[in-house]
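pasting for ref
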Amino acid sequence: MEIQYLNAKNGENIIKINDYFLHSNYNPSKEAATFIERSYKKDAVQIVFGYGEGHFVNALKSKMSFNDKYIVIEPILQIKNKENHVIPYEDSRQLQRDLSTYIKVTDRINVILSPNYDRLVPEKYKDFLMIIKQLQKQAIFNENTIMYFQNKWDKNFLINLSHTLKDESLAKLRNAYSCPVVIASGGPSLTKQIPMLKKYRHKLVLIAAGSAINTLLQFNIEPDYTVSIDGSEENYNHYKGLKLKNSKYIYEMYSHPDIRDSFKSAYYFTGQISSDIEEYLKQRIGSDIASLPGGVSVATFCLSIAMYISTGPIALIGQDLAYTNNQTHAEGNRRLSKIDEEFKNKTRLIEAPGYYDDVVLTSFDLLVMKDIFEDLLLLAGTEREIYNCTEGGIKIEGYNQLPFEDFCTHNALNLIQLEEPKLKEKDYYNYSVSQILSKLNEELKICKELQSICVKSLEVLNSNSSNKEFLSSVLKKLDKNDKKIKMIIQKTALSITFQAIDIYVLKYFKAKQNETKEEQYTRVYSQSKTLYEKMSEATNRYLNYLQQTITILENEGV
């Protein structure tokens, strides 16, 4: 590209690339102010595609409200003395990772295209819009997951807490093995790998991802480890009635607690959702906690687990992330459905590059999982041997594709004895029942205090005598109570539930354009009232679940 740094008629700096001016040749600042006036949207993350000489960004900063955020994507120029808000666009994957650190679940996004950038780099702009679309959909996906499970998470977590007294932390298995690991997921292509899996079964560690357990058992294959992260009844139904003799259960602390009954022994871990939860567990059960990345899919968590417990090569099978053979899952999976017209009407199907460089049908949810797999590969580093041996489905970028037979013949060479490794350096231990009960009873007291503070905050809010503004005395009392609430939450496992409440009140009580003082008061009052009511309800549920957990521990006397 031919880049020229020029001066406009009024003396301001401008840039011309090839035949296109990035700013007005007469009065760039005035043009930028007019342009931003039309393009700006209040209460949104402003994402500007194209920095140029910065005239549009300067106009945007003058227009923004105090709580607005902005990001600038520059796909062509090297910006000298660039601000932290400017992200160079060289690689699509890196851009997606950079943007994901800026954009939160509650954010609305407003894209501002600087003039002529779409003409200069049309493919990059097209990819950029696709990235924004994916991030927005992923935010919706994450929000829906949080909102759907918020009433189940506390119950699952606390009942699983009682399981931890007889189970081990996954930290006990860190780097325990150096043998090959195979992760069996529930995609349609899993069944084609069954013969090879049976042939080499005892020469590799087999991890079943969630519902894949049903397909494996149908072919009389019991995995070494079975992983669950899902807290729903639907997930529990995959395991209901199963009595596995040898497979060990690995569960995320928010998984459905009744699944534990199907296994003789188990390991627990936490996803990297909240550092507060990790610390809470350490304080309650006195054990090192394995906190692993994994996003929203049990299969991606299985990859993290495989990398955590073994230094050996890893193979993915059944990881279609696509509707191979017009099926959702492998034969034998209880969630198996055919892709018929009814399914197509409910699910927006998307075409994507396939394993064999063909075109396959997938969905947005599956593409989100694909992105997480690709991110985990980057975290793993180039030294890890990780292969996609699905032999079907979507192409997962960055993964070496290898026929499953080749993986087995090159790596599954010796019989494996899955004895629990002896601890060498650190003594992992669980607190006694009496110690945990003491901590939980103390937590019961502070949760009752939390509920009382929420109720008092509602009373303070209702005592405000003005219908136009908050009295300073009211604001002081609420601020004092908010600080107490924040301190108490850190001593409980309520942080995820309260995060869901924060998402709700931040998303559904946004300021309107040109909001009057009375409208602002009404909005903030309703927002605060909803916040305290939902926190009070959540705390009350948590108290009930906490009391149930205490009763379980007292009765079992583990």
